[in-house]
Amino acid sequence: MLDDNTFVISDTGDALFGATDMAIPRATEFMASAYYASLGFAVPASVGVQLARPKLRPLVLVGDGAFQMTGLELTTAARYHLNPIVIILNNYGYGTERPMLDGEFNNVYPWQTRYIPNLLNAGLSFDVNTEEEFDQALKVAREHTESFCIVDVRLDVKDFSPALLRMTSALGKRVNGNKPAAVTAGP
User: Fold this and answer.
1) Global confidence as pTM
2) Domain spans of the chain?
3) Segments of the chain scoring below 50 in pLDDT
4) Is CATH 3.40.50.970 what the domain over 6-175 is classified as, yes or no?
């Protein structure tokens, strides 16, 4: 789905770790806040990118925790008739933390993102539980260019990218006294 008109914006966390394996047509069309690790960066960044480069369509990769911090910046996208595709990697909390130190503090309150288009009088939203639903949602989102699209991808709480597991394995051992972290949270 990535083409010369797509600008990928990845939020901090497993969205960024997972994005490291993506093939982007041009290196200048990928943005992340990796240096400062600012959670909640991607949705507002998509507004800035599209206002600065209106011929490009942002594809946002964001976790559900980060989306809850700044996701309603889609209000600005609706106001200015912008059309980012926002893929929420919904693992019911701060998944980047779980492999290192799990606990109730990593859980977030579950949002019903399907209602955001009603709230903002713009956009489309998709609840995705399977790969087939994901493919269909992306197809419809690509064709819908009038406003933003939210693709809420429901993941297992233990669904971690290989890159995240490599990074957190050493950190988790230090935090837990050389014992691997147990992932206990759920929807």
Assistant:
1) 0.87
2) 6-175
3) 184-186
4) yes
